[in-house]
């Protein structure tokens, strides 16, 4: 109880367990940053607790400290052989305890950051990118891309601009359901299928975005590797010669069109279902007419998810209202993204926004 | 426990105690559904009464669970979806993929 009070007064959130079995029950719902365990307990002792944790992939890497009145070498050796990070003697002064815990947490964070940086460096060296680094200017359209990672980790959003010739360009925005590295890894598989399907359909003279979506859907549906991995997709074809746009989507968020004449945003909702879930994804396509200065927007779910006052929310109308206000004030794309995605809006996922502006 | 289950006849009723269902719980939830669909033609009701926010990772786990159950010729019905989560389901057409009911009684009835 004294230890709990000491830790809480130092700003740590503490959950107390009465026994190893109680602790295991708590761990099911809440994996902590650090465990401090007594050595001697009823039923199962601290060593047995640590052995149980080591046998679990989920719990084996939680930093672990023994709290003990013993300081005999035999205990210390046994504990350290079980990968306990350290011992702390009962009655340790508060300052020493807090310093020890902060050192452990800082070391764990440094190691994690180092691993992530190494992975990022490898990804950069291999030129693995799931979002283009350059915008694209066509004769009649200007395409600008905003992409923000979540907590500086790559994520499941993926974007591609596929220039077929001077006339036709495809625009792809997908979002693999998941977060961080796992979703990032699978985004490359989806991107490969999408690029191949678009190219093969174009070779066959097929420029229908709904039919191309169905081809992508078919191949993903039969791939066992993606058996329980799902992605949304927005697919847009720009005909730069005629100034026309066609759009199809798979469980994506609506395409938004801002009309300069009315200063209003209109939503285009697609009908298609999640890529690969059914053999037939029920895809439709919509032709979207534009005049000079009209702007279309594609968005991933990270754009409309946010956290305020500790509560997470999804609100597309809030985003549309903000966007409408900024567009009505003739703000540029950079000004719009800086106005919406800033420190005041706490992001909870990676987010992507693509603007297609009719010149 | 984030998820609990009760059995009513041949139907498993899974109740989520989470307010925010997200990445942290998604793998565990998928495993929980998989573990509970060992039988032929499993029938499940998932009670989302407490869930006010659901992220794409958790939706992915829910969809993976549905696919598993459908592959065994079973059925899943969702109940008590909050307005915000329902709006997200409608926006992304997941309301066309899942059977959705106002409460667990109606969901159970639909599977009988």
Can you tell me the CATH class of the largest domain in chain A?
Alpha Beta
Tell me which oligomeric state these chains represent.
Answer: heterodimer
How many structural domains of chain B?
1
Q: How does the major sheet of chain B shape up?
A: 5 strands, mixed
Number of domains in the coordinates of chain A?
A: 2
Distance between the termini of chain A: 68 Å
Q: Give the percentage of residues in beta strands of chain B.
A: 25-35%
Give the helix level of chain B as a range of percent: 40-55%
Lateral arrangement of strands in the main beta sheet of chain A:
4-5-16-13-10-11
The major sheet of chain A is characterized as: 6 strands, antiparallel
- CATH topology (fold) name of chain B: Transcription Regulator spoIIAA
Give a verbal description of the structure.
The complex is a heterodimer of chains A (359) and B (112). Chain A has nine helices and 16 strands. Chain A has 359 residues and is an alpha+beta fold. Chain A folds into two domains: 123 residues, Rossmann fold (3-Layer(aba) Sandwich), CATH 3.40.50; 229 residues, PPM-type phosphatase domain (Phosphatase 2c, domain 1). In chain A, helix 6 packs across helix 7 and helix 8 packs across helix 9. Chain A is elongated and about 85 Å long. In chain A, 35% of the residues are buried. With 112 residues, chain B is α/β, with parallel strands linked by helices. In chain B, helix 1 packs parallel to helix 2. The longest helix of chain B is centred in the middle third of the chain and has 16 residues. Chain B is globular and about 30 Å long. Chains A and B meet through strand 15 of A and helix 1, helix 2 and helix 3 of B.
């Amino acid at each position: 109880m004294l230890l709990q009070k000491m830790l809480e007064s130092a700003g740590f959130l503490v959950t107390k367990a009465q026994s190893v079995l109680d602790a295991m029950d708590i761990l099911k719902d809440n994996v902590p940053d650090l465990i401090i365990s007594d050595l001697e307990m009823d039923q199962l002792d601290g060593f047995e607790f640590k052995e149980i944790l080591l046998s679990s992939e989920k719990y084996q890497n939680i930093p672990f400290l023994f709290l003990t009145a013993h300081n005999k070498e035999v205990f210390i050796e046994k504990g350290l052989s079980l990968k306990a990070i350290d011992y702390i003697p009962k009655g340790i002064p508060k300052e020493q305890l807090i310093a020890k815990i902060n050192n452990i947490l800082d070391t764990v964070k440094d190691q994690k950051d180092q691993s992530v940086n190494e992975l990022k460096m490898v990804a950069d060296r291999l030129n693995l990118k799931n979002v283009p680094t350059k915008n694209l200017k066509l004769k009649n359209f200007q395409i600008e891309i905003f992409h923000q990672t979540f907590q500086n980790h790559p994520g499941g959003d993926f974007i591609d601009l596929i220039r077929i010739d001077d006339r036709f360009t495809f625009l792809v925005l997908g979002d693999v359901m998941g977060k961080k590295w796992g979703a990032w890894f699978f985004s490359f598989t989806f991107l490969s299928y999408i690029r191949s399907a678009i190219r093969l359909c174009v070779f066959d003279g097929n420029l229908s975005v709904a039919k191309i979506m169905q081809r992508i859907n078919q191949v993903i549906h039969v791939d066992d590797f993606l058996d329980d991995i799902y992605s949304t997709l927005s697919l847009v074809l720009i005909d730069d010669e005629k100034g026309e746009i066609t759009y199809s989507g798979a469980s994506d968020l609506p395409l938004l069109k801002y009309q300069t004449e009315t200063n209003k945003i209109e939503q285009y909702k697609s009908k298609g279902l999640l890529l690969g879930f059914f053999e037939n994804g029920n895809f439709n396509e919509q032709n979207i007419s534009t005049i000079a200065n009209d702007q279309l927007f594609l968005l991933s779910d990270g754009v409309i998810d946010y956290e305020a006052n500790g509560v997470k929310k999804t609100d597309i109308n809030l985003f549309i209202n903000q966007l409408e206000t900024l567009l009505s004030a003739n703000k540029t794309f950079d000004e719009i993204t800086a106005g919406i995605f800033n420190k005041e809006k706490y992001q909870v996922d990676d987010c992507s926004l693509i603007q297609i502006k009719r010149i | 426990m984030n998820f609990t289950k009760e059995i009513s006849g041949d139907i498993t009723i899974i109740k989520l105690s989470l307010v925010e269902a997200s990445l942290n719980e998604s793998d565990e939830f998928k495993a929980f559904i998989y573990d509970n669909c060992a039988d032929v033609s499993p029938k499940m009701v998932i009670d989302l009464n407490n869930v006010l926010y659901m992220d794409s990772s958790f939706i992915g786990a829910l969809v993976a669970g549905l696919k598993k159950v459908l592959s065994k010729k079973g059925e899943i019905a969702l109940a008590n979806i909050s307005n915000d989560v329902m709006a997200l389901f409608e926006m992304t057409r997941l309301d066309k993929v899942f059977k959705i009911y106002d409460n667990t009684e109606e969901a159970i009835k639909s599977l009988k």
